[in-house]
Amino acid sequence: MISPASWDIVFEPSLPSALIVLLALAGAAVIAYSAWRGARGTPWRTAALAAMLLTLLNPTMRQEDRQPVSDVAVVVMDKSESMDVGARAAEAQDALTRVEASLKTLSGIETRIVTVEGGAGGGGESGEGTLAFGALDRALADVPRERVAGAIFITDGEVHDAPKTARALGFDAPVHALIIGRKNEKDRRLTVVEAPRFGIVDEQVKLAFRVDDTGADAATGGTAPVTISIDGAEIMKTEVAVGKTTEVSLALKHGGPNVIEIDVAPGPDELTLLNNRAVVVANGIRDRLRVLLVSGEPHPGERTWRNLLKADPSVDLVHFTILRPPEKQDGTPINELSLIAFPTRELFVEKLSQFDLIVFDRFKRQGVLPLEYFSNIVDYVENGGAVLDSAGPAFASPFSLYRTPLAAILPAQPTGEITLGGYRPTVTATGRKHPVTADLPGSNVTPPQWGRWFRIIDSKVDRGEVVMEAPGGKPLMVLDHAGKGRVAQVMSDQLWLWSRGYEGGGPQAELLRRLAHWLMKEPDLEEENLSASIEGTTLDVKRRTMADQTPPAVITAPSGKTSELKLEQTAPGRFEARMPARELGLYRVSQGDLSAVTAAGPLNPKEFADVRATDAIMKPIAAETGGGVYWVGENAGATPDIRAVRAHHEASGDNWLGLRRNEQYLVRAVRQVPLLSGPLALIVILGALGFAWRREGR
Fold this sequence. Notes:
Blueprint: E1 6-11, H1 17-37, H2 42-57, E2 59-68, E3 71-79, H3 88-104, E4 109-117, H4 124-128, H5 132-139, E5 148-155, E6 175-179, E7 187-194, E8 198-200, E9 204-214, E10 223-230, E11 233-241, E12 245-251, E13 256-264, E14 277-285, E15 289-295, H6 302-310, E16 315-321, H7 344-350, E17 357-361, H8 371-382, E18 386-390, E19 412-423, E20 426-427, E21 453-461, E22 465-470, E23 474-482, E24 485-490, H9 496-499, H10 508-519, E25 529-535, E26 538-544, E27 553-556, E28 562-565, E29 568-571, E30 574-580, E31 585-591, E32 594-600, H11 619-625, E33 629-631, E34 641-646, E35 656-661, E36 665-674, H12 678-697
Parallel strand pairs: 3-4, 3-5, 5-6, 6-33, 8-14, 15-16, 15-17, 17-18, 18-24, 34-35
Antiparallel strand pairs: 1-2, 2-36, 7-9, 9-12, 10-11, 10-13, 13-14, 19-21, 20-22, 22-23, 23-24, 25-26, 26-30, 27-28, 27-31, 29-30, 31-32
Helix pairs in contact: 1-2, 2-12, 7-8
């Protein structure tokens, strides 16, 4: 629409302004001199000078065809998680409907509606709370600031990026807030005051938190029951004082991330239970692992074990090689031997429980260790310890380790035979599922791409799982659980050939690393393991199992809603599935006796730090811009009327809010007509000079 023509008089000087000023000063001096001399033509000279200056200024009549442009008003709709409390979402939608209807009655104002989304995929909005003013900036990114009519926020008032001053807005227009919720709401919330980021496994760490009952007339004092869990397993229940910081001590159960959950029971008045829970992830760090390596005799592979264990700075290795068994008597006095006496009682009685792993490397029963010490090792394993036996030829002899009380926990018994000849170790069908041997480098082809071994101690497996074998199905590596502990047997002493690179070598370091970590119960190497993680807005569930099938996983969202997720097999013994994770908070995944937890977004989001509706955050910016704050949650019919106001006029009242009319326009056409043309100006100037000459000539 083109508005009626607008007429203006403008000046477009024919000469530079400075030159016109100089001419004016010179002419004024001449006229002043004439007046001082009493010349009777001075008025006409003045008129001639004025006509000349006016001609040089070139007055022009300008006509513009103008097209008015609309002003822009932005409605910011808060749809963050705190708006899901109670009936806020429905009340906010009702208020938005009324605001839209009112805005449609105003001509010349363009309305833009932008939402502030929450959820796990909210990016910054999830991690930093409700960024409503960031959404406003994006909505006005392509709008000249002189066209902004104002902004209307429909929110519970929990806005976390409100500017400190109106200048930071970048525009001069009123900001209004329609507050959804109730005044003086009450709620119970849990706040983590101090949390460990890491801790030594099985050692105590401190956790500090506070329970608050908030509200205008919230009760003070009293206690609240709190439950603390690690990785979904409850470890503590306690009563804590409301309003005071509570410190508890707990121990991390394993290496890697330990998810610590703190839950407080509902209070007398609750807006939501989502802030009754806090989550802390503490990384468990194993103290130096203690490994006892007992070599029955010197041999080429002995250094392989030692180098592997000494290469890890977190391992404390105690290594003994039996160089002088009791039957070796050559008459040399003991005090002249440079050998260290084997501290058998200290190691296998007094300090046995301090070791995380015991390795027997080609051990031969030679009377060095009494049988009662082997009984101690059996008890050690059944109470949670770990034993690894790398068998040599002696295992098939009458001096076999199997002819000790250790036979109670060893899964493979010798047949008394030894097979010699080159062969390539292969991973069994069971081994392709087991985390120790699954996807070993070089195992994905037949035959495996690694070097040969040349000896195997024939054995019969009574229990456990055979994960590697030699030709003919002969067991090569057997893994088993014994009580609370674990046992592994390698039925060959040729593993060292891989470390020497014979025929290309093999994944010796990776295999032994996995084997040692499995024996020490690292969660990542459990045969039956359920894990969950969140990337962006996707929940990723992984299951490792020795079974051929697995049941659906039960997913519990932060809101408490449950659903089933069917897992698909991606590799032998490995199942995976994904699903959207749009809610912010802790997801629980369970499958039979296994469970896992993971968090979407920040562990303790600012969005739920305080979910009570408030006008305190929006009031300062609204007051500075001339806007208003209105509580409409209790009665959506109280939504204020919307009016268009001129600049510098009041923009808010008790039951109305104003949007500024900036009266901006676009110029579509311009026509100009000079008021003094050249001939007309010449006639006027010469006429004035002629009258001056005639007047002075009389």
